[in-house]
Design goal:
The structure holds two protein chains of two kinds. Helix content of chain A is about 30%, strand content about 20%. In chain A, helix 1 runs parallel beside helix 2. By secondary structure, chain A is α/β, with parallel strands linked by helices. In chain B, helix 6 packs parallel to helix 7 and helix 10 runs antiparallel to helix 11. The chains are: A alpha/beta, B alpha/beta. At the A-B interface, helix 4, helix 5, strand 8, helix 7 and strand 11 of A face helix 4, helix 5, helix 6, helix 7 and strand 7 of B.
């Protein structure tokens, strides 16, 4: 039986751009995660991500300051286009990244066979939500760490920890994915751009804001209305799983999946740390430098305080959440489901 | 190989007698070669059907159908995990893996890969074949170009391939039950409200436009996939199996229409006309195949 002692967790922070990487490292990140400027990573947005040269420089910056760099190559190559993912793995290994985050079985197999010494992490996009699934990946590709889907309670995470041979990374802040990651084609259904293959959810090019004469705002993704906001209401970015809909029994519009809200596990951190979680992850490679700075430094302070046996002053991160609403999501209770 | 027609697992929560009658009728009347059984969406539904598996499977086999057991698509809690370990431990039964937890048990044994598994490319397909897969049903969002590459690799590897050609498209899975949520409940006290909607609960946008359909933890398309027009291309690229996903309407008639199409006894346009008559309220889609928005329906021009 493993003792529920608190081990010092690694704080893993988003780096959508070279500037965000430097900001995160300076603000106290133990590791940053980033991707190349193409479909090989799950945040393939215009203006984000790294050229090979920037990746090299980012690595040097992080390593000089004792921080690790994790390369996300966590999308699913469509047949016939596998070479782009091979290149990403080859480059990442050549540059000396500390770990590569993979989701696709073919990509994991390629990385493992070609570079047996390269440390691999299993992306949340792989959707490994049970000990057996995780063990399959560990056995097949020598995965060293799994990023858990945001659907388990802390108790369940603890149980998983006791059954698997690898480390656990858990999300603590940012976007809360309502759909099982890596298994959602909703964006593709509405826009023709695939989250799994193209690395984009709710692409900006398909997002529309229509204002009527009374200044009511309708948000659309492609052809489909996602939400309506009366004048004065703050309109959210239209993602299908945070929209309002009606059904035959529900004539009043309701959030059929979830309301615009962000995950914030600040208060659950000690429990997570006792549950055997090795790394705590902040979501948001698409967010600004200011966001990264505020969130990373806040969690740095909080974690350090807990490690020193102090009761931290919990910073208010509400202003940085989606729709100014926060939740502990699935982590607190099964009733979230 | 003569193209094979398959009946996928029932995605919805039907009352057990309806569930059983469906398979009995498929056995007696539907010209399908393979039938999948097993609860793929929610482990809470499984106890209603599990007592019927053996009888239904035997009946289907006597009718000359090959029977394959499908595992749960999302595996998380103890009950889910037990379902997977139980099903994969059955002897003399071919199992379709819909999640990697099933592969944990099936590695090294002959098995098939279901459409919920992320088989997007030829390298993944090769790994899974070496791991014991002898057949794969590809994800519904794959476009023609990818299916063609995958099919070629499958032929090379000596495994058979399958594509869903009819029925609402599974688009997303979640830990949360959206059927329960619509009724102000949570998954643990859902009281099986998903049984009210034999083909899913339609979700409309605020403008009244039909968009999606909710099926417990699964979100499905509003439209009904129909690849009748694309079957010739699919057979041309070497896809061996064609999957119909069950609905509450006349699936025997649907399978007869697709059988006629596969044996060149009917053309896609007339088959589509007939399919429309069976279920006029659900529009067709084929966008994913054509690498465009999934809900779209691209009508092929009449060939001269």
């Amino acid at each position: 039986m493993k003792q529920p002692s608190m081990q010092r967790p690694e704080l893993v922070c988003p780096a959508g751009t070279p500037a965000a990487l430097r900001t995160a490292v300076d603000a106290g990140a133990d590791a940053v995660y980033c991707g190349f400027q193409n479909a090989t990573n799950a945040r393939n947005f215009p203006g984000l991500n790294f050229t090979p040269e920037e990746m090299k420089q980012g690595l040097a910056y992080a390593h000089e300051r004792g921080a690790k760099v994790l390369l996300a190559a966590n999308t699913f190559p469509p047949a016939g286009k596998f070479d782009l993912w091979k290149q990403a793995i080859d480059m990442a290994h050549g540059f000396g990244v500390d770990a590569i985050i993979v989701a696709d079985i073919g990509v994991a197999d390629y990385a493992h066979r070609t570079y047996p010494d390269q440390r691999l992490h299993l992306s949340v996009q792989a959707g490994a939500s049970s000990p057996e699934a995780i063990k399959f990946y560990c056995r097949s590709f020598d995965i060293k760490r799994v990023v858990l889907p945001r659907i388990l309670t802390v108790q369940e995470i603890k149980a998983v920890h006791n059954e698997i041979p690898c480390e656990i990374e858990a999300f603590i802040f940012g976007n809360i994915g309502m759909m099982a990651e890596g298994r959602c084609s909703l964006t593709n259904y509405a826009t023709g751009i695939s989250t799994n293959m193209d690395g984009v959810c709710s692409p900006a090019g398909d997002v529309h804001y229509d204002e009527d004469k009374d200044r009511n705002l309708t948000t659309r993704l492609g052809e489909f209305t996602i939400d309506c906001f009366s004048c004065g209401e703050k309109a959210g970015y239209p993602t299908i799983c945070k929209g309002r809909y009606v059904t035959k029994d529900h004539k009043e519009p309701y959030y059929a999946f979830e309301e615009p809200i962000s995950l914030n596990l600040t208060a659950l951190l000690p429990e997570l740390m006792k549950a055997g979680v090795t790394a705590l992850k902040i979501e948001g490679r698409q967010r600004s430098k200011a966001y990264v700075e505020a969130v990373v430094s806040s969690f740095r302070e909080t974690i350090d305080a807990y490690m020193n046996g102090e009761e931290p002053e919990l910073n208010d991160l509400l202003a940085l959440t989606e729709g100014n609403k926060q939740t502990e999501g699935a982590f607190k209770s099964k009733r979230w489901r | 190989m003569i193209p094979q027609l398959t009946m996928g697992p029932i995605q919805y929560h039907w009352p057990a007698p309806q569930w059983k009658d469906f398979y009995m009728r498929i056995a007696d009347e539907a010209p399908v070669d393979v039938v999948y059984i097993g609860e793929v969406i929610c482990s809470k539904r499984a106890p209603f059907y599990e007592p019927l598996y053996e009888e239904v499977a035997d009946y289907l086999k006597k009718a000359g159908k090959k029977v394959i057991f499908s595992t749960l698509a999302e595996v998380m809690i103890k009950h889910d995990r037990k379902m997977v370990s139980g099903m994969t431990a059955l002897e003399d039964v071919l199992v379709e893996a819909n999640d990697t937890s099933a592969l944990y048990y099936l590695s090294g044994k002959p098995h098939t890969i279901g459409p919920f598994m992320n088989v997007y490319n030829e390298e993944t397909l090769t790994f899974l074949t070496l791991n014991g897969a002898e057949h794969a049903c590809f994800p519904t969002e794959l476009p023609e170009a990818s299916l063609s590459v995958l099919s070629r690799r499958a032929n090379h590897l000596g495994i058979t391939t399958e594509v869903q050609v009819y029925g609402r498209i599974p688009l997303a899975l979640s830990a949360r039950c959206y059927h329960a949520r619509a009724h102000g409940r949570v998954k643990d006290n859902c009281q099986f409200v998903c049984e009210n909607d034999a083909d899913g609960m339609e979700l409309k946008t605020l403008k009244g436009q039909p968009f999606l359909s909710v099926n417990g933890i699964a979100t499905m398309s509003h439209t009904c996939l129909n690849l009748a027009q694309e079957i010739e291309t699919l057979t041309g690229m070497g896809i061996t199996h064609y999957r119909l996903s069950p609905h509450s309407h006349d699936m025997v008639k649907v399978s007869k229409l697709f059988r006629d199409l596969l044996s060149n006894k009917a053309d896609p346009a007339s088959v589509t006309e007939e399919l429309k008559k069976i279920r006029p309220d659900i529009p067709f889609s084929n966008g994913f195949f054509h690498r465009t928005r999934g809900y779209e329906w691209l009508q092929q021009r009449e060939s001269a």
